[in-house]
Amino acid sequence: MLRRVAISWLLAVLALPAGARTRPHYGGTIHVEVAGDPLVKPGGLARRLILDGLTTLGPEGAVRPALAVNWQSSDAAHRWQFTLRSGVQFQDGSPLTAAGVVNSLHLSCNGNCPWSAVNAVGSELVFTSDSPMPHLPALLAGDDFLIALTVGENGLPPQHPTGTGPFQFKSDANGVLTLAAYQNCWQGRPFADSVEIRGHRSIRDQWLDLSVGRADVVEVPPEMLRRARQQQFTVVTSPPVTLLALELSTSGALANPMLRASIALAVDRGALFNVIFQKQGDLTAALLPRRLTGYAFLFPTDRNLNKAIALRGGTHPPLLRLAADGDSAMQLAAQRIVLNLREAGFRVQMDSGKPQNADMILRMLPLAGSDPAAVMETLLRSAGQSQPVTAQSPAALYRAEKEFLDRHTIVPLLDLPRAWAISGRVRDFTLRADGTPDLADASLEDAQ
Amino acid sequence: MDIGEQNGVVRTALESGNGGAKKLFRFLAVCVLGLAGLAVCTAQAPNSWRQPTTELAGKIADLLGPGQANLTLSNLSSIPNDQVSEIRELLVQALRARGVTAAGPDSANSVRVTLSESAKERLWVAQVIEGNQTKVAMVDAGPASAPRVHAAAGLMLRRKRVFAGHTPILASLETAGGLVILQPQRIAIYSQTAAGWHEQQHADIAPAGPLPRDPRGILLPPSTGHGFVAWLPGTRCTGSFLASAAARYWAIGCHKSDDPWVISSGTRSALSGPGTVAPALPAQLPNGQSNPVASAQSSLPTLKAFYDASRDYFTGVVVPSPRVDLPPFYSAAFVPRPAGGDALLIGGIDGKVQLLANGSLSPVDGVRDWGSDFAALHSGCGTGTQIIVSASGEAVSDSLRAYELPALEAIPASEPLAMNGTVTALWTAPDGRGVMAVVRSAPNQYEVDRVTASCN
Asked: Does the distance separating the beta carbons of B394 and A189 come in below 8 Å?
């Protein structure tokens, strides 16, 4: 009987008039909620919608032209010349010029730039440096180097971020940042008329709003991926695009490299993976994931407490402070690491102050891109360790990575994905190489 | 079971002569072909592994020197496990040739070989362990992806790449003077050379206004068959090939235009009453011969549709008027009706597919898997004309499939033909015997494919 009812129901469903899938519709407002500040770098979602870089990373991670149409290096990558795209206008109507790009780049890195100098020569930008910059096009695709208007028509800095991206700032009131479609965007106007981003929203509230139709796109932290699927959310997940790593200071109590090596062996990655991050992502002791290099398995991930204790020796280092740069899951992970280190004989406590002042910082580092050497350089740069990575072959890259990891200044722990849950009205929702949503290409099913 | 035994099974099935024999024969034939393909792939494998195993063995021998070592091999790659033993055997042989012989686990030296891979390439890694010292050697073992075998049944669709480029392509047209490629802000003329298509001439198009996110365009041959007419959002262009004793060149001109786009030849049967119809086709083919499909329709009126440049669809207002309000639509194509005459198939922006025949609109069923793009194909198979439709999925790789419309239900007439990426445009080829598809295979990779059908 039950089988007949089921078959009848199935036939009834199949008999319903089913429409074909259409091209994306223009119009409507996409409602997004995030835990952080959408305008703050790095990673502010709105920044990526308002601003473009000279280059960008395609979904597969390869460097693509954006505001620069082509580029070439000379002098063994000590000099780069980028040709600016012509006819591009900022959202206030002013033209994009090479001089304007130079001003924006100066402000973006405040003297700590990968280049020694950048100059505008007509519609060209010329970067020069004393050390080689083999991966400058990939570095320029990063969030740090997005191009913003620095001087408005009145000669003053614009009140709101102004760029050349698909959406432009409209208002920021009552915790909601509203962006409107930029009609003259050089990539074509986006499908949605506007995007509303509600920042500083807890994950619980984001999910509640998605459930009742108040939000279209919300965050799903890696440790909550399983729960999101259990709740029948439509979840879009990136490949692992962030590296959870423990940064160790090379000064103060951890100036001794044996102690840093001991800490690297004492951390229990399995517990972080199984308990805190709910078996999402991949265990790793390598900087670069296996999908990029193929050799990550050469760095063992197993905890070796006996060796850690032996390396620590009979010394009793002073109290170590561990800070976590991130949300509640990061705090839990840091607490777990504190326990691991205490088991190895270290005296450790959580530091709630500025992470920069701690001996150890647990943080996420970016892994976006498909060129392993470029990803490694970007990752090291974001960890404050600027050094060009010139290795090209897997064997040379492995040697460079091993040499770096043997210093034990960064202890890789987990490769983690980024994930978003979307409502049924959002279509063609895709993620960029860094795991952030590409809302310019998304559209709404019910837009007219 | 060897091949001889398989043939025996096939013979037995044929000799049984019952009603299911043909089906069984077809099934077994597919199996045999599949096994043969697999056998070919497998047979090729040792040859492709010989070079990296030799290279890796050389590196291991350089690190270890002549002697004995315990060899272990593990597979973290997509290489099938049945090929791993062959790779191991090749490696043992290559090591032996360099003076390294495989020994038991009691050996003081050990070599751990891991067949690994990244997203791009296979990487074989050897860890050479002597005492407490470990040295590492690596070799590149080729790209990680493996070729796939596709099979189709019924009407068979085939695709052939005509052109590939790194910038968005809206439409293309083969003419007597070469290949015309329509891009959002450019028209380029290519000539065929021994090395492939070579850009001969181009003209920039100043956009009439901001372009939509996914702009569309149409390229049609004029009725003479020489030159082209192009429509883009807010712009109309014409091109004609001029040949004189002094020079041979294309004269290309563009101007702002909100005029309706020519989407097909019209028909009294579809729009107002009985008559005949066919897609807009030139009277003459690029090779100068007369177009047999077009010759029967040369006297038909032309159907034009107004295009909303900001919303990227046809508004539903068409000329001449069909005497019925058409919904806004993305695609339209004429299809022959079994009772004679033709009807206009419309893919609405709401996802509904409707058929306009004898002055009235009727919904079409069986279009759940349809995307927004379709075009008519005059294959000569079955009813003679099929609709080639893009798939509705959001998969990275799109597909095309042939359908027939005997009544108001779309019936699949072929297996889906996998494309290299997302189909962004689809139209009937000038000779009517194929459809042309623009495929975005990667963010900056576009190709134009010609899709034809053969009767099974």
From this structure: no
Rounded distance between C-alpha atoms, residue B143 and residue B299, angstroms:
55
Distance (Å) from the alpha carbon of B240 to chain A's nearest alpha carbon: 29
Q: Do B330 and A428 touch (CB under 8 A)?
A: no
Q: What are phi and psi of A118, to 5 degrees?
A: -135, 130
Instruction: Give the CATH number of domain A29-38+165-238+418-444; options: 1.10.3720.10, 2.170.130.30, 3.30.450.20, 3.40.190.10.
Output: 3.40.190.10
Contact residues on chain B for A187, CB-CB shorter than 8 A = 213
Contact residues, chain B, for A188 at CB < 8 Å: 184, 210-215
Residues A298, B125: C-beta atoms closer than 8 Å: yes
- Sign of the Cα torsion A23, A428, A291, A61 reads positive
pTM > 0.90: yes or no: no
B303 versus B224: the higher-pLDDT residue is: B303
A222 SS3 class? helix
ipTM beyond cut 0.90: no
Here the contacts of A267-274 (C-beta below 8 Å, separation 24 or greater) are: A267/A303, A267/A337, A267/A340, A267/A341, A267/A411, A267/A413, A268/A303, A268/A336, A268/A340, A269/A301, A269/A303, A269/A413, A269/A414, A270/A301, A270/A303, A271/A336, A271/A340, A272/A244, A272/A333, A272/A336, A272/A337, A272/A413, A272/A414, A273/A414
Q: Give the pLDDT mean for B126-132.
A: 89
Kindly identify which residue of chain B lies nearest to residue A185, measuring between CA atoms.
Answer: B210
DSSP A143: G
> What are the two backbone dihedrals, phi and then psi, of residue B451, each rounded to the nearest 5 degrees?
-110, 125
Residue of A13, A22, A167 to mutate for B, most B C-beta atoms under 10 A: A22
Q: Which residues of chain A are within 8 Å of residue B371 when distances are taken between CB atoms? A: 20-22
Measure the CA–CA gap between A258 and A351, rounded to whole angstroms: 23
- Mark yes or no for CB contact B123/A294 under 8 Å: yes
Which domains are delineated in chain B? Answer: 3-10+21-143 (3.40.50), 156-454 (2.120.10)
Domain ranges of chain A: 29-38+165-238+418-444, 52-145, 242-416
Give the SS3 label for residue B192: strand
Report residue A381 as tokens.
């740069």
Partners of A25 on chain B (C-beta within 8 Å) are: 311, 349
∠ Cα A36 A38 A44 (to 5°): 90
Per-residue pLDDT, B113: 93
The type of residue at A93 is G
Residues in chain A, pLDDT under 50: 1-2, 10-17
Cβ within 8 Å, pair A23-B349: yes
Pick from A25, A188, A394: CB nearest B215 = A188
Interface test with A, best of B76, B204, B213 (most A CBs within 10 A): B213
Q: Peptide bond preceding A42: is omega within 30 degrees of 0, i.e. cis?
A: yes
B209 class by beta-carbon count within 10 Å (0-12 exposed, 13-18 middle, 19+ buried): middle
The reply to whether residue B443 touches residue A59, judged by beta carbons under 8 angstroms, is: yes
Fold assignment, A242-416: Dipeptide-binding Protein; domain 3 (3.10.105)
8 A C-beta contact, residue B190 and residue B197: yes
| Nearest CB neighbour to A23, from listed B121, B123, B312 | B312
Q: Are A19 and B349 within 8 A, CB to CB? A: no
- To the question of domain A52-145 being in CATH 3.40.50.300, the answer is no
Q: Using the 8-state DSSP alphabet, how is residue B49 labeled?
A: H
How many CB pairs (< 8 A) connect A and B? 125
Model confidence over A224-240: pLDDT tens digits?
Answer: 998 998 898 999 999 89
Task: Judge contact between B392 and B350, C-beta under 8 A.
Answer: no
Residue B370 to residue A21, Cβ atoms within 8 A:
yes
